[in-house]
Amino acid sequence: MKLTIDSPILKANSDSAIETRKLLSEKKIFALNLLSSPGAGKTTILERTLIILRDKIKIAVIEGDLQTSRDAERIEKIGIPAIQINTDGGCHLNASMIQCALKKLDISELEVLFIENVGNLVCPAAYDLGEHKKVTVLSIPEGDDKPVKYPTIFIRSQVVIINKIDLLPFTDFNLKQVKEDLYRLNPNLTIFELSCKTGEGLNQWTDWLCLQRL
Ligand code: MG
Ligand code: ZN
User: Fold this and answer.
1) What distances in angstroms separate CA 3 from CA 6, 10, 14, 72, one per listed residue?
2) Which ligand approaches the C-alpha of residue 114 most closely?
3) pTM of the complete model
């Protein structure tokens, strides 16, 4: 007998995620769930993205973090509304946390919502938050074995950002192999190569974002 302890929890989560997605779709708010391991550069990518898009699109951010509100403070400095969710040690965001956070945001004129998940390549993949797309960030220093070691998150994502691409010459990260692994896991992936340090790839990523709006 296979015992799936998580399934009632995941069912409740999925019900509330479906509600959220319906609400966001009705209001024409395009929502992205940003995932990665700790330190892959999610918040820095957000900062650079928001600086490029803040005068063109109405954006808000929900920040998930174990304890601090540092990431939300970084986003607010750019002039973008940010709601911090502290999971108090919890290793992923869930759909009801997003429903609570959305009540605190003025979504009347919003066009894009970013949700920065807790840094973790495992269980955030299992929790639908009501987003339209999952974007997983994989950074060069993490090594090229992550897609094969943590396949689920890459299979469930629509976009992968290979970040810190400027560090490629200083490592044995096999970019060609990683892309082959990613497309084998998920042939429909959109992959961006990006560096927040040099700015490489940022325009391709933000152009894509502008085209995705609901
Ligand atoms: Mg962060
Ligand atoms: Zn977790």
Assistant:
1) 9, 14, 19, 38
2) 1
3) 0.95
